[in-house]
Amino acid sequence: MIGSIVGAFIGTILAVIFFIFLFILIILYTCYKIDRSMSS
């Protein structure tokens, strides 16, 4: 019982970290594209 709770908790944390990482990558990519289009 406790093992499954810990497993679900770790899985949720990993999913949150993954989505935050993906969100940061999208922001950086968008800023990079805007910067490129502004400078040209």
Automatic annotation (TrEMBL):
Protein name listed in UniProt: Uncharacterized protein
Domain of life: Eukaryota
TM stretches of this protein: 6-32
Keywords for the protein's UniProt record, in alphabetical order: Membrane, Transmembrane, Transmembrane helix
